[in-house]
Amino acid sequence: MDFNEAEEGKTRFLVPLQDQAHPFPPRSAPVFFNPRMEISRDATVVLASLLRPDHYLDAMGATGARGLRIANECGIGVTINDRDPVAVEVIRHNAAFTGLPVRVSCLDVNALLSSSRFAAVDLDPFGTPAPFIDSAIRGSERYLFITATDTAPLCGAHRRAGMRRYFATPINNEYHAETGLRVLLGAVVREAVKYDRGVVPLFCFAREHFIRLHLRLVPGAGAADRSLSRVGYVMQCPVCPFRAEQEGIAPVPSRCPACGSALQPNGPLWTGEIQDTSLLARMEGAMPGMVLGKKKDLQSLVAACSLELPLSWHYDYHALAKYFRTSPPPLEQVLDSLRSAGYAASRAHYSGTALKTDAPLSCLGEIFKKNR
Q1: In CATH, what number is assigned to the domain containing residue 365?
Q2: Which residues lie closer than 8 Å to 199 by C-beta, 6 or more apart?
Q3: With CB atoms 3.0 to 4.6 Å apart as the test, which of 85, 201, 265, 343 could cross-link to 251 if both were Cys?
Q4: 236 and 135 within one domain
Q5: Hey, which residues does 120 pair with through a beta bridge?
Q6: Helices 277-286 and 295-307 sit at what angle, rounded to 10 degrees?
Q7: What is the residue range of 43's domain?
Q8: Tens digit of pLDDT for each residue in 149-188?
C-alpha cells in the first residue's frame, strides 16, 4: 500500500494514496480519510484537552487520524478500533510511525462496547451512527461524541430512511440543518434514558455535509427525566412562516394562530440547549495557544455558537421578506430592531441567512416593512 504523509495540528501520520481524479478522492483509497473533516478533528482535540477524559476510544478509526491526534496533542490514553483488518494494519503502521503508545483493536464496534467501557467514546462512521448509538452509550462512562454524515434522512429529504434510523419524521424545511442536528440528539436521548442516564450537550454543530455532537452523559433517573422532558416537536405551519416548539413524546394536534391551518409536527427532536456556553468560552480562551490547521474557522464557529439562541428552528431571512412582500432590509438592522423592541434575536451558526427570534410574526412584519 502506498502512502502520503499528512499533518494536522501537531501530528504527522500516513494516509493511503488517493486518486485525485476520482469524484470523491477519499473513497478511492483502500482506507478512508477525508481532509475536509479536519475542523471536526480540531474541535475534538480542543474539547478533549479541556475535558481530560481518562481514556478515549476512537471507535471507527480508519487511518486512526483522530485518535492519534488525541493521544499526541492531549496526552490522553487512547484506544483506536476498526473492524476492517486493512484499516487496522494502517492504524498499527501509523502508531509505529508516530511512536505513540495507543492501543489498537480489530473488533466490531458493538461487540467492543458491549464488553468494555471508556471515559469517552467517539463514533465517526461513514454514514449513519444509528446502529451504534445504543452500545456507545453503554460503553461510555462520561462523554459521547458522534458524527453523522447521513444528513438527508436526518433533515427530512429521505423521509422513510429518517423514520427507520431515528424513529422520527423530520420535515424538509428551510431550517433543515437545525432539524437534523436536533433529530440526531433526540434519538441519542431516547436511547440513553433507557439506562437511566441523562444527556447534556456540550458543543454541537452542523456544517457542510455533517453533524457533530459532543455530549456528557449523566447517571440517574432524575437526569434521564430532565433530558426526556426536552424531547418534543417543532409544530410547523404548511401555509405561513409560523412555527413553535411543543414538548412531549407524542405531538398534540393544534392549529396555526396566524392563519388557522393544521400544524405539522417536525420530530421528535431535542428542544433544549445545544451548547455549554461556559465550555465554549474556555475553548475560545484555549485556541490561540494551540496548533490547529482550521483554527480561524473553528474560532468563528465557536463564537457563532456562543451567541446563538437555543431555539429549535429559524426563519430564513429572504423567505420572510417574500412572505411580507417587501425587499429585505439588512439582517443586522433587523436583529438590532428586534432587540430594541425587547425580543431575543440572533443568527445561526450554520447559515448566513438564518434569523432566530422569539418575536411574533406580526412584530417581524412591522420591522421588515419599517426597515426596508
Answers
A1: 3.30.56.70
A2: 144, 185, 188, 189, 192, 215, 216, 217, 218, 227
A3: 265
A4: yes
A5: 56, 143
A6: 150
A7: 3-307
A8: 999 999 999 999 999 999 999 999 999 999 999 999 999 9
Mean pLDDT of the chain: 96
- Compute φ and ψ for 175, nearest 5 degrees: -110, 40
- What grid cell was written down for 356? 432566530
> Any bridge partners for residue 351, and if so which?
348
Domain termination site, one of 280, 307, 334: 307
What percent of the chain clears pLDDT 70, i.e. is strictly above it?
99
Contact 230, 270 (CB under 8 A): yes
> Could you please report the per-residue DSSP string of 98-150?
HT---EEE---HHHHHHH--EEEEEE--SS--GGGHHHHHHHEEEEEEEEE--
Look-up of cell digits 427532536: 269
State the total domains in the chain: 2
Same domain membership, residue 334 and residue 251: no
The single residue listed with the C-alpha cell 456507545 is 136
Question: 132-156 burial by CB neighbour count: b if 16+ within 10 A, else e?
Answer: bbbbbbbbbebbbbbbbbbbbbbbb
Tens digits of residue pLDDT in 264-279:
999 999 999 999 999 9
